[in-house]
Amino acid sequence: MKILNKTSIIIATAAVLSSATSCKKILDEQPRAQLYPEYFTTAGGVQAAVTGVYNDLRGTFSGEGIVYAYNGTDENIPGGSAGTVAPLFNSFNGINSSNGPDITGLYVDINTLNGVFQYATAITDATARTQFVAQAKFLRAFIYFYLVQTYGGTTATQKSGIPLHSTYITSASTADAPAPLADIYAFIIKDLTEAAAELPNTITSTNPFSAGGVGKTATAAVANAYLAKVYLTRGYSEVKQAGDFQKAADLTAALINNKGTYGLDLWQDYMDVHKPANDYGKENMFCIDYGGASDPQYTGYTLQGSGGYGLNQLYVLARMNYVGPGIDNIAGIDGVPQRLTTKSGMFRDVYNGRPYVRLAPNVRYTMNVAFANQVSDSRYDATFQTFWICNTNVAAGTKSDGSLKDKLIPTSSPSTSAYIKPIDGDTAILMPSVDVTMARRDAFKGLIVTPKQFNNVIFPTVKKFDDPKRNATGDFSSRPIAMMRFSEVYLMNAEANYMLGNVSTAADMLNIIRRRSAYRTPDDAQNVAKNAISVTASSMASVNAANAAAMVLNSTQLAQLAIPNNTSNPASLCGMDLILDEYTREFYGDPRRWYDLVRTQQLVRRNKMYNTNGGPNVQDYHARWPIPQNLINNVLSGPKYPQNNGY
C-alpha cells in the first residue's frame, strides 16, 4: 500500500477526520490533523480520506497487541515474556470486556469512508472518482468483516455484536445498538461485489494507490478473494444462506483459472514466498504497507524506538531470546524442561534480531502434527530459524562429565549496525528435529535443543518476517504484512468444496499446495540447519520429484478428507483437520489462526485436542471476543449496549 500522494498522507495519517470514535456516534472535537468535515467537499479531501484509512490500518495489524489472534488456538502458547493478559487468552480464563481486544477504533475509518461516498462528487474526473470510491468500498467491507469476525452481530442466540453505520456522521450522539448479523454480512457482500466490479485487475504505475506500480492495495482479485472468504465464513454461521459455499468455490476457482489476468501465481519454491524481494510479487495479493526504513515521514516511527505509530512488530513476537541459553552440558541437560546455563555463545546483533518472546509454538500440535514431516515438506525450514551462529568470544563449554568441549569459533562478521548474514563460525544453538544422544551433545561445541525440550522460553524462531533493511538491534520492521496470499485462494477453494462434499476437487487444491512445498534448491540449503534435508545441483531433480510424490494425499488421508466437518468430538479426526493443518503450514506466524478456527467452528474442539491450558475452559461463546467496556460505557442514551454472551 505505498501511497503516491505524500501530502495527503501527512494530512490524513492519524485521525483522518473529526469523526466517530469506537462504535459510538460521538464527535471528536480534537482531530489529530487539520482535516475537518468541510475538507471533504474538495477532491483533495476525498483522496486524503482514502489514503489516510490505508495508513491507519497499520496501527491495527502491526503491534504486539495483535497476539489475541494467536493465543487460544492450537498453534501457539504465550512466550516467556508474554505478560499477564496473553495467558488469559490461551487459557480462556479471565477474559473480560476490559482486557479483551479493542479494535472498535476502526469505526473512525468507517466514518471517514462513509464521508467518501457522501462527497465523492467533489472529484470531477470520472475515472479517478471510480477508483477512489471502489477502494473505499473495499476498505469499508474489509474493516467490517474484521470487526464482525471479532465481535459478531445479533442472531437468534446472540444478543450483541457490532453496530452498522452506513452514513457519514457529523453530529454527536450518545446512543448506539448492535446490528443483526445477517444485515452486516449483506452490507459487506454488497460493498465487495461493487468494489470487485470497479477495481483494476492489477496494480499499475497510474494507480493513485501505489508508488510507481509498487504496493499491494486492493484490486478486483483482492475484492473477489475477500468476497469468497465472506461467503465461506457466513456459510458456517447462524445466518448462512443456501449457496454460500458454492459461491466461495466459484469465486476462488475463477481467480485460479484467470490468475494471469490478475498477475497472480504461486512461487515454485515456498522459500521464495517470504523473501523481501518478493513482498510485492505475484503471490502476495493484499498487504498492509510500512513504507521502508528510509521513509520515516511515511512510516512514522523512530528507529530503535519502542513506541510510535504504525510499527511492524510481527518479526519480534515469536522470536526466542537467543542470548539466554548457555552451552554447558550440565547434569540434566537432556531433561524436560531443559536446564540452561548462563555461558552464552550469543549476544544481540542485527541479523538475529530483537527478541520479544511474546509467542512460542505449541509443540503438541505445531511440531508434532502440523510440521511433523520436515523431509518432504520444506515449509518448516522456510518458517523457522533452527540454528544460531556464535557471534561472541565465549569460553569453551563443558561436557556432561565436566570436561571441556572444543571452543566455539565466532563468526567474523557480527554487527550491531547492519544486517549481515554469517558466512563462517560455529553453531552456538542447534534445534534438530529429533532426539540426540548425550555423546552427540558432548561432541557439539554449542547447545542442542530437541523438540521435546521446547518450551515458552527456548523454541524455534519465526524467521519469515525478518527485515534485512534494519540497521540497529532495536529496529522494528518496515516490511509489509501480507493479509491475503494467493495460496489462500487454493485453500479456501479446498475448504468450500470440502463443505460441499466435493472431496476430489478439495483434494486437487490441497495437492497443488502440498506438491509445491516439496520443492528445494541448493541455495535454500544455506538457510537450514545442516542436519536437515538439503539438495545439491545433481540431486535436486530426483529428490524434489520423490518428495512431491510423497506429499500427494495418500489413501488414508483421502478417506479422512471424506469425513464431514466434526465440530465436537476431539477423539475423531475429519477432513477439516487436514485443511486446517495446511493453513498452519502455509501461514504459521501470520495473525489469523483464531479467526480460522472460529470460522470453521473448530475453536472449541481443536483447543480441547491440543491446548493443554485452554482446552478444559474453552466454550462456544469464546468464538466472539467481549464487547470492549469503553464502548458500553459511552452509550449513554437509550438501551444499554449489551455484552456478548458469556462475558
Protein model, in words:
The chain has 22 helices and eleven strands. Strands 7-8-9 form a three-stranded mixed sheet, with no helix packed on it. Strands 1-2 form a two-stranded antiparallel ribbon. With 647 residues, it is mainly α. 52% of the residues are buried. Strand 1 (20-21) and strand 2 form a beta hairpin. Mean pLDDT is 89; it is low at 1-34 and 293-301. The longest helix is centred in the N-terminal third of the chain and has 26 residues, at 126-151.
The shape is globular
Helix content: 25-40%
By DSSP, the count of extended strands is 11
Distance between the termini: 37 Å
Oligomer: single chain
Report a brief summary of the structure:
It is built from 22 helices and eleven strands. By secondary structure, the chain is mainly alpha-helical. Helix 2 (43-61) runs antiparallel to helix 4, helix 4 (106-119) packs antiparallel against helix 5 and helix 6 runs antiparallel to helix 7 (220-236).
Key terms for this structure?
single chain; mainly alpha; 3-stranded mixed beta sheet; two-stranded antiparallel ribbon; 22 helices
Summarize the helices and strands and which ones pair or pack.
Elements: H1 6-12, E1 20-21, E2 24-27, H2 43-61, E3 76-78, H3 86-91, H4 106-119, H5 126-151, H6 181-198, H7 220-236, H8 244-257, H9 259-262, E4 284-288, H10 296-299, H11 314-317, E5 359-361, H12 363-370, H13 379-383, E6 384-385, E7 387-389, E8 427-430, H14 438-443, E9 447-448, E10 461-462, E11 481-485, H15 486-500, H16 503-516, H17 540-551, H18 555-561, H19 575-587, H20 593-599, H21 603-610, H22 629-634
Parallel strand pairs: 8-9
Antiparallel strand pairs: 1-2, 3-5, 4-11, 6-10, 7-8
Helix pairs in contact: 1-2, 2-4, 2-5, 4-5, 5-6, 6-7, 7-8, 7-15, 8-15, 15-16, 15-19, 16-17, 18-19
